[in-house]
Specification:
With about 220 residues, this protein is an alpha+beta fold. The protein has three domains: about 100 residues, Winged helix-like DNA-binding domain superfamily/Winged helix DNA-binding domain (Arc Repressor Mutant, subunit A), CATH 1.10.10.10; about 40 residues; about 50 residues. About 60% of the residues lie in helices and about 10% in strands. It is built from ten helices and four strands. Helix 8 packs across helix 10 and helix 9 runs antiparallel to helix 10. The radius of gyration is 28 Å and the shape is rod-shaped.
Amino acid sequence: MPEPETSTITAIEPQVKRPDRVSVFVAGEFVMGMHAEVAIAAGLRVGQPISVSELQALARAEELRHARESALRLLGYRGRSRKEIQQRLHQQGYDPDLVEETLELLSRSGLINDSEFSQSWVRARTGGRPMGRTRIAAELRQKGVEKEVIQTALQPIDPDVELDLALKVGRQKVEQLRGEDVRTARRKLSAALMRRGFAWDISAKVLDIVLTDGD
């Protein structure tokens, strides 16, 4: 089988408007632009022989870098699950194999970690506006987190903790229901607790406590 046809790199020039990128010329003609870190990592130099397959590998390395940067921008706004990043990169048109390679790179570096993400999500959702286990679990499932990871993240929310969270919600809500008859207040408070994802037995205890506190 014949060797791939090769040519020679004749120039590597910084781009005027984007000095972090370079333009690569082969046999006197522009063939591609790439981030300087890709060129450095590949060890490109003027006078170097280069084949078509090597140019294709460089193009893929540049696309991989670009996908990684896109993922890092998403993570810069807030933590995200592996599935969320995967979906966004697919939406941006990246090749599925390249998306998986990007996810593996980010996972190995610890930038994507569904366990840590889930624990952070639980802390946030039990903070100022508390949610129950059911709703938190549903949100994490929607984000593509595996069942076992969700169960581990939810362990700190035992029944006593969930009751305390639900009581916080109930006491805030009951203040808004002053003047309502007991039946109406009970119905509205029950609906509010269920929307927040608290289990029925927890909600029932809260109803009994907060609706008798003012008696």
